[in-house]
């Protein structure tokens, strides 16, 4: 297998995972402290890497170009297919709408700052969407090349932020304990969504021609990079600002301002802003690539036009329209994104693996852990869904 493709796939997974949601981690973790958030992150990373490997096991029994839609239909029948379709469309369209809305606003700001050119929010959103849509429509190889450049720049911006913050870490801040037990449970969905990359797995499988050893390497390393980055990010943010001050921050702008003020570095806010731009863009590329491949497969099965241009229009027009004309409504829908991700990244892989193992026992690559690991993963998924429902109903605090 081409090592360059493996590297590119690894970076697509890492780039998809390290998104704008990472910037919400300190706000979600403010009330539970560094140690508790670290334990939750380790547990959820292990779960998400495990279920991603389950997807690779399932892909052995299908064509390497199969998407989640095809796999669910093959192993779970029509009900599984519709469940996968709903979860995929809800989650990906919701995320794409968020990235287009946020990216359009940031794009307008960057054009104004760098080029001294005023551009309306609508035109900025249209132009931003067109640029990303063009890259995704051309193909996965193009996404790979663009993502490599953006990922490198993102790491540089991230390293710069860490250098600014690291000398100001205070040990006593890192030893803070949870303010209340309810906050520990409430933080789980936010941290969980920060490790989501499963929607892009079918595109990666197709890109690597279904080569299992390469896929395993890409997933393990690709998911480990975000874990390491998150640990350092939590270390410097939770270690620089005391817990009570973090709890008072109600948004990203407040967090950036607090960090810049604490370390007496006025350029820090701009640096984090650049990192946020790159984090959002790499996530948008990964998520929209997964949606593009999914929709292309669905249209092909229905006999509809599956040219890359027509698939691109179906992929990007709905979330762009939503972001342009009804951005407020999406805020509410985002609260349910964790539920869709649980279905997509936990329940479906586990159900398909159970079916695949019953049909073809002891053939090919099989993820370790047996039925015990499958049961434990299911239980954690139920806990995440229940937690999000309780947060929505106001029975648990909403974080960040």
What would you say about this model in short?
The chain has helices at 3-17, 25-29, 34-59, 68-115, 121-138, 140-165, 171-174, 181-193, 201-207, 212-240, 243-248, 252-262, 268-301, 308-325, 327-334, 337-359, 370-392. By secondary structure, it is mostly helical.
Gross morphology: globular
Number of helices: 17
Give the N-to-C terminal Cα separation. 43 Å
Mean pLDDT: 83
Radius of gyration: 21 Å
Give the topology string: H per helix, E per strand.
HHHHHHHHHHHHHHHHH
* Structural class category: mainly alpha
Largest sheet: none
Strand content: under 5%
Total beta strand runs: 0
The stretches of 5 or more residues where confidence is low (pLDDT under 50) are none
Residues in helices, as a percent range = over 70%
Task: Provide an overview of this structure.
This protein has helices at 3-17, 25-29, 34-59, 68-115, 121-138, 140-165, 171-174, 181-193, 201-207, 212-240, 243-248, 252-262, 268-301, 308-325, 327-334, 337-359, 370-392. It contains 17 helices and no strands. It is globular and about 60 Å long. The model has no long low-confidence stretch (mean pLDDT 83). The chain is mainly alpha-helical and 400 residues long. Helix content is 78%, strand content 0%.
Note the main attributes of this structure.
400 residues; mainly alpha; 17 helices; 78% helix
Question: Layout of helices and strands, plus pairs?
Answer:
Layout lengths: L2 H15 L7 H5 L4 H26 L8 H48 L5 H18 L1 H26 L5 H4 L6 H13 L7 H7 L4 H29 L2 H6 L3 H11 L5 H34 L6 H18 L1 H8 L2 H23 L10 H23 L8
């Amino acid at each position: 297998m081409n090592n360059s493709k493996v590297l590119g796939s690894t970076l697509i997974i890492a780039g998809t995972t390290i998104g704008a949601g990472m910037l919400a981690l300190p706000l979600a973790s403010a009330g539970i402290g560094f140690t508790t958030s670290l334990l939750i992150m380790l547990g959820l990373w292990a779960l998400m890497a495990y279920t991603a490997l389950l997807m690779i096991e399932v892909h052995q029994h299908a064509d390497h170009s199969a998407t989640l839609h095809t796999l669910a239909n093959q192993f779970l029948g029509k009900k599984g297919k519709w469940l996968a379709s709903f979860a995929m469309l809800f989650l990906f369209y919701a995320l794409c709408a968020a990235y287009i809305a946020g990216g359009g606003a940031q794009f307008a700001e960057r054009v104004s700052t760098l080029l001294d050119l005023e551009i309306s929010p609508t035109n900025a959103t249209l132009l931003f969407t067109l640029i990303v849509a063009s890259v995704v429509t051309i193909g996965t190889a193009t996404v790979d090349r663009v993502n490599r450049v953006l990922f490198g720049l993102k790491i540089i911006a991230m390293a710069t932020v860490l250098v600014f913050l690291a000398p100001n870490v205070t040990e006593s801040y890192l030893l803070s304990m949870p303010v209340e037990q309810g906050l520990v449970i409430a933080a789980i969905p936010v941290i969980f969504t920060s490790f989501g990359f499963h929607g892009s797995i079918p595109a990666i499988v197709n890109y690597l021609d279904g080569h299992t050893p390469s896929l395993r390497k890409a997933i393990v390393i690709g998911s480990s990079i975000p874990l390491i980055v998150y640990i350092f990010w939590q270390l410097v943010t939770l270690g620089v600002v005391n817990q009570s001050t973090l709890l008072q921050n109600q948004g990203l702008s407040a967090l950036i301002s607090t960090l810049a003020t604490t370390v007496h570095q006025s350029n820090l806010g701009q640096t984090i802003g650049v990192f946020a731009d790159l984090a959002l863009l790499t996530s948008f590329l990964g998520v929209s690539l997964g949606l593009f491949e999914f929709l292309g497969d669905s249209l092909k099965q229905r006999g509809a036009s599956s040219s890359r241009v027509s698939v691109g229009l179906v992929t990007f027009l709905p979330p762009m329209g939503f972001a342009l004309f009804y951005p407020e409504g999406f805020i509410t829908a985002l609260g349910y994104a964790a539920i869709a991700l649980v279905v997509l990244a936990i329940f479906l892989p586990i159900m398909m693996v159970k079916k695949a193992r019953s049909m073809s026992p002891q053939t090919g690559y099989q993820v370790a852990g047996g039925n015990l690991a499958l049961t434990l993963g299911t239980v954690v998924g139920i806990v995440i869904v229940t937690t999000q429902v309780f947060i929505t109903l106001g029975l648990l605090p909403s974080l960040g």
